UniProtKB/TrEMBL annotation, chain A:
It comes from the Eukaryota. It holds the Pfam family Trm112p. This is Trm112p-domain-containing protein. It comes from Hohenbuehelia grisea. Belongs to the TRM112 family.
From TrEMBL, chain B:
It comes from the Eukaryota. It comes from Hohenbuehelia grisea. Keywords: Cytoplasm, Methyltransferase, RNA-binding, S-adenosyl-L-methionine, Transferase, tRNA processing, tRNA-binding. The keyword Endoplasmic reticulum does not apply. Its main location: cytoplasm. It is an enzyme of class 2 (transferase). Belongs to the class I-like SAM-binding methyltransferase superfamily. TRM11 methyltransferase family. This is tRNA (guanine(10)-N(2))-methyltransferase. The keyword Transferase applies. PROSITE patterns: N6_MTASE (PS00092), SAM_MT_TRM11 (PS51627).
Length: 123, 454
């Protein structure tokens, strides 16, 4: 499954697609919610890696509006709990991800996105 | 520091010191190692605290037990002198501590009568406590170590003709070895012919220093053998493979998720992705605490990368363009691949790891090597600035072997995403032009490692 934590780390990598190639847009998704262990230290350490706007937009795209549009300056437990839920507990099982720039479609099946490039897409 | 007697399992002897070093580093304590590396099971190692010995015994796969070191000698006279010198360690148990005392040998069986004699010879310790076999407060062990004489029928070992004898107080029995059975590949819900055996996967996991909250990546995920032990130690794992079928298998849900579920680790498998390591979609670097992987070396699972061996013909290109234009998507698209030579792959893996690892992070991977040809510079030749080898342990299969290499990202700066060499040129070899012996490993393997012109 794709979770938003990994989705936030992946950009379109087709040949020549270097700008506006992130975040990939979800389409026709099937979502499951599954519990994950809460590890506040991990989340604090991971926070600097997150592209905040991309995370919030993608969460909204799949129907979760719990995150604030602006990343809060105060990192308290409540905030970490909602961050935990959005990053780790929403699982996209089926559907696809589309590049906002070149429109390449990365299909997701059985929870595994196919991000192989076609011959004309490799540099 | 105080001495502790480590009793190691008799397998993978080159792996045991790197393993305890990794776990000591994980918990942030230091070790004092002997100058000479031994191959036998007994090694005396210095530790600052008894608790450190317990931590190691709970986590190290190759550690069978740890004793507080009370004495050692090549004769019993030497052993007793050494034990007397450590009186302050065993003195506190003299009065009323219940105890058990056993005498045993490695590579030999000591006759009962002599075992009794050996115990009696320790009577100067004057222990007054009760002898208690089931739940003693104190366990003492005396170990004779004999040379390995397997296959030497004539030179049967003579009783008492040991190389060294050791004596000490049991601190902790190793409990991590039981994980080898827990992760037994044959009992796993999903595995394949590329799966790594449980013991080796666990050793690899320990080289990564996996712990709760670490983020670990396998770019050649296959059936995910190393993901389970690393996740077991608390890490969150991401895997990718050029061939999705390796991670998926035939049933639903995907094989790696099924196996992870069996172990209760599904929530720690963060995600699986199908892509070519050299054409990867990572948005940024400095992400992972470790990368652990068994790269394809072409014997069982071919090493491939996207592209073609030779430029496609004009006719082929035309057919291809038509197909694209028609927008037919009923068939899953399978892009062409070309072979990926091992020494190229190894260099690319190090480069990619330097980009993706956090500073201080580790790359842990297997490199197959040809026994007669291997030189240490082979490994040096695949490094790049900011990446240093910190462990290199051989598993020997005779004419070939594989080395578990641990490389640390010593650089504290970030690196741009690597540009891989996509042509099959060798300009990267640099001015020295050293050709590592693992180059064209697959061809050498199928030729039975015969040397050219010989
Ligand atoms: C030796 S197997 C790894 C086995 C794995 N450790 C397991 O437990 O099954 C190597 C894997 O690398 C994959 N592979 C080969 N070339 C690749 C590439 N260029 N990028 C990503 N994966 C690749 C193969 O599909 C294969 O699954
Ligand atoms: Zn794109």
């Amino acid at each position: 499954m794709v979770r938003l934590i990994t989705h936030n780390l992946l950009a379109c990598h087709a040949k020549g697609c270097n700008a506006n190639n992130f975040p990939l847009q979800f389409k026709d998704v099937e979502i499951e919610i599954r519990e994950a262990e809460f590890n506040p230290d991990f989340l604090r350490g991971f926070l600097p890696k997150i592209e905040w706007k991309a995370l919030v937009d993608s969460a909204r795209q799949i129907g979760d509006t719990s995150l604030p549009a602006e990343q809060p300056e105060m990192v308290d437990d409540d905030f970490l709990k909602s961050l935990h839920h959005v990053l780790l507990e929403l699982h996209i099982e089926e559907g696809s991800m589309t590049c906002p720039n070149c429109s390449h479609v990365y299909p997701i099946s059985n929870g595994i996105p196919n991000m192989l490039l076609a011959e004309h897409e490799i540099a | 520091m105080r001495g502790y007697l480590f009793v190691f399992a008799q397998s993978h002897s080159e792996f045991r010191i790197p393993e305890i070093q990794s776990i000591a580093e994980l918990y942030g304590f230091s070790l004092q190692l002997p100058e000479l590396e031994s191959v036998g099971p007994f090694v005396v190692i210095g530790l600052e605290k008894e608790d450190h010995a317990r931590l190691l015994a709970k986590r190290c796969i190759l550690l069978k037990s740890v004793y507080e070191f009370w004495g050692q000698g090549s004769t019993y006279e030497e052993l007793h002198n050494s034990t007397r010198a450590h009186k302050s360690l065993w003195d506190p148990y003299q009065q009323d501590t219940s105890f058990r005392f056993f005498v045993t040998a490695y590579n030999h069986t000591i006759p009962q009568s002599r075992q009794r004699q050996i115990m009696e010879d320790f009577s100067y310790m004057a222990y007054l406590g009760k002898i208690e076999l089931k739940q003693p407060e104190l366990v003492m062990g005396c170990f004779e170590e004999y040379d390995d004489t397997r296959g030497l029928a004539k030179n049967r070992v003579k009783d008492g003709n040991f190389r060294q004898v050791y004596f000490g107080r049991l601190i902790e029995e190793g409990s991590a070895r039981a994980l080898i059975g827990h992760f037994d590949v044959k009992k796993r819900a999903y595995y394949g012919n590329t799966s790594m055996d449980a013991e080796m996967s666990l050793l690899m996991a320990n080289q990564t220093k996996a712990a709760p909250g670490s983020l670990i990546y396998d770019p050649f995920m296959g059936t995910g053998s190393m993901a389970y032990p690393t996740a077991h130690f608390g890490a969150l794992v991401i895997g990718s493979d050029i061939d999705g079928r390796q991670m998926r298998g035939k049933e639903k849900p995907a094989g790696v998720f099924r196996a992870a579920t069996q172990y209760g680790l599904a929530s720690r498998i963060l995600g699986l992705f199908t892509f070519d390591m050299t054409r990867n979609p990572w948005r940024c670097g400095d992400l992972f605490d470790a990368i652990v992987t068994d790269p394809p070396y072409g014997v069982r699972a071919g090493a491939k990368r996207l592209g073609r061996k030779t430029e496609p013909s004009e006719k082929h290109k035309e057919v291809y363009r038509e197909r694209l234009a028609s927008g037919r998507t009923d068939q899953p698209y399978i892009p062409p691949t070309k072979p990926y030579e091992l020494s190229d792959l190894a260099r690319d893996l190090v480069l990619l790891s330097r980009y993706l690892l956090k500073p201080g992070g580790r790359l842990v991977f297997f490199l197959p090597t040809v026994t007669d040809e291997y030189e240490d510079v082979d490994i040096q030749s695949m490094l790049c600035e900011g990446m240093e080898v910190i462990a290199n342990s051989l598993q020997d299969f005779g004419s070939w072997g594989r080395r578990l290499v641990t490389i640390k990202k010593t650089a504290t700066t970030s690196f741009p995403p690597p540009v891989f060499n996509t042509n099959d040129d060798t300009s990267w070899l640099g001015p020295s032009g050293h050709v590592p012996a693992h180059k064209d490993f697959r061809e050498k393997y199928f030729q039975g490692f015969r040397k050219e012109n010989s």
